[in-house]
């Protein structure tokens, strides 16, 4: 059913929107500052043109929270583990079906849908100056085993709803608006995190690596992609790359995955920087021996070398003097792992993160020096010190942060600046586009487990803020 308006309702409700959001709108009239035109328009519309345009606009944004909640519930049923947990792994049947579900919603929102060779999905709303760099938003819909409903999903379904919000308000974008569903943010299947955004952002190293990448079942990446309908007849994936400058801005909506917003009762986190991890693998080898027979002066204990290095990691991280520097030894294996045997081998995996790349790399260098010194002092061999990845952190763009802050104020939604300690597709989008992120609270900061939860009120606030931010950036 179409909504019916009386003429007076039409004049008071619809006309102001037409004036404000068509390209020949009040905004342009404001720039002309022609008093006659403005007076005529004011009389005709019944609204003073000099009132800030956004006040009409922000009032006219309404999120269909009920439908959005229903969609989040529906999407969670595409899972390989029983509810309330969600398991959705790249290129599995459930992943293919959920992609169809999202493409359908994009189509219903009036977006033109395209997919690239690895299944990054794009839904575009053409702007009236479509030759300008587009404004993009989006996130991921894959889920690690036994995780929750909201990680990534809020940024995809929320983005589609943000477009619907703008369409219902009568908004017309100047720059085109794109929603991107990124392939495989989680590293579950092929051990590569942010695979889709990393390749999209032009990683030649990844493009090369994907030709020989296999999963735990020895299925190649390319075969898996083909089974899902992608990369058909092509080994060269460099056509996935998007040129720097194609996007004017990228904004991702995401659950915080921490508890700061919830604890402080704040609705929105405006992200200023994304910390990036470096991962290091270390192996020590000693002679081992009988726990009773080999006396202490004669030992070269690989286990103690690992223990000493773990403490050194903590020390070097603390020495940085910044609360933003963190380091974790999440894996420490001893061989042969018997109570009466001196460890002959030890294996550590170290994760260190920061928002400042230089500071983080200094920590890595100090960890390396410590590993060398410890090996020497204990008479063990440092058989491996391998930096697995060392992605640079990203700073959010100042003008996008300003747009988000202005939007929060107009919508009267409480907000605070914060750092993203986890990393996201946005980290890689930052390589080709100015980037920003919006966080919403999540229950106790739970994520990557079935208890993950965000209230529909918080999601709706995030969607509204995303919609207004996209609108502002689109008109720039
Ligand atoms: Zn995520």
Major sheet attributes: 9 strands, mixed
Named once each, the bound ligands are:
zinc ion
Name the poorly predicted regions.
Answer: 1-53
Number of helices: 16
Mean pLDDT: 89
Q: Any idea what the shape is?
A: globular
The CATH topology of the largest domain corresponds to Aminopeptidase
Q: How many discrete domains?
A: 3
CA radius of gyration is: 26 Å
Distance between the termini: 35 Å
Helical fraction: 25-40%
**Proportion of residues in extended strands:** 15-25%
CATH architecture of the largest domain: 3-Layer(aba) Sandwich
Signal peptide: 1-26
InterPro entries: Amidase_Cbmase, Bact_exopeptidase_dim_dom, Peptidase_M20
Organism: Cephalotus follicularis (Albany pitcher plant)
GO molecular function: hydrolase activity, acting on carbon-nitrogen (but not peptide) bonds, in linear amidines; metal ion binding
Describe the model.
The chain is an alpha+beta fold. It has three domains: 7-51, no CATH class; 65-275 and 400-475, Zn peptidases (Aminopeptidase, 3-Layer(aba) Sandwich); 276-390, Alpha-Beta Plaits (2-Layer Sandwich), CATH 3.30.70. Helix content is 39%, strand content 22%. The protein contains 16 helices and 17 strands. The strands form four sheets. Strands 2, 3, 4, 6, 7, 8, 15, 16 and 17 form a nine-stranded mixed β-sheet that branches. A hairpin with a 5-residue loop joins strand 2 and strand 3. The model is unreliable at 1-53 (pLDDT under 50). It binds zinc ion.
